[in-house]
Amino acid sequence: xxxxxxxxxRMYTQVMLLVTVYLSLYLRARRKMDRLSWLGFGLVALxxxxxxMLAALPLVGVGCHALYxxxxxxxxxxxxxxxxxxxVLYVPWLGTIVSEQEQVTGSLRPLWQETALNPVKPLTAxxxxxxxxxxxxxxxxxxxxSGQFVLVYVAFSWFMTLSLLLLSVLIGWKGRxxxxxxGMFLPVAVLAATMSPTLIYLVRPFFxxxxxxxxxxxxxxxxxxxxxxxKGTPLPWLVGLLGVGMLGGSVGYxxxxxxxxxxxxxxxxxxxxxxxxxxxxxxxxxxYLPALRYxxxxxxxxxxxxPDPRKPxxxxxxxxxxxxxxxxxxxxxRLWLVVALEHSLEWQKERVGVILxxxxxxxxxxxxxxQVYLLEKE
Length: 378
Known about the structure:
Distance between the termini: 48 Å
Shape: elongated
Order of helices and strands: HHHHHHHHHHHHHEHEHEEHEE
Low-confidence stretches: 112-116
Mean pLDDT: 81
Number of helices: 16
Strand content: 5-15%
Helix content: 55-70%
Number of strands: 6
């Protein structure tokens, strides 16, 4: 998981870093009870929640930890004070969060895909954090063998994850009076709080749990360390097997093709053949938004009408983009059509058909799943 998202310019790795730092500062502040540590804890936590709002969930675990140790009243009240201050400082963003629930504008809208609601997502999300998705070995294996490997990998991931969780609960419960759980309350509380949205997903699937659980990663590693140290139980063996699986998944990511399409390469290809007066059109904002940063062209558009819009129109306009209906594309001698089939697949294919109907295909190039057409007027 860490390796996969370290390859992207996304917020997930930053969330993992900031959560790790603010949890460390929280424990340091409790131990030293100095103002600098409490201030640092609050500041880094604020940076974390502004990086990704679900980075606030580990703070619920922090609150549970403070209540559990409520006999230490000084630390409890300082934790409450930091929480209240964070809430006040986060107020400017709350209006945006409310507006994001609208289907046509926000990232909190319910996922449009009918396949989004998956009752086993909570377990799948934990397995993904531990072992990642099946590594792509198709360059070296036949399609049949590769398909069988994926099935075995998924079965192994689920079995190991479920076994680890159930055994840990059983052993932890039996050893609660023997000190076996010493020091694990905070990591377990943070894990429970961070994984709780997977239950919300079953009611309102507006996010992908395996990504938004990035904040759980630091405590997940602490949990694995605890499980691996429980001598006289099967847990160290399970952790060892998980370690082998995690290593295999990491090697698979390093050897396989990048998880994201090579949009930079796509736009370099377009730029190499671009002529003044050419029109460039994208059917997906997955290619359009990065393309706006890779080059500046006068006639550069995104096809309007996506039934599952990822961003509101003002977002595209704010970064210099513009939308156009497929039927109203400006008449041009030459047209570049970039097709990245990431979502709204049937709709994109229909738009491509409409556009191709008025042009002759000069050349087609496929790069990492992205198709680039050079078209000329018939």
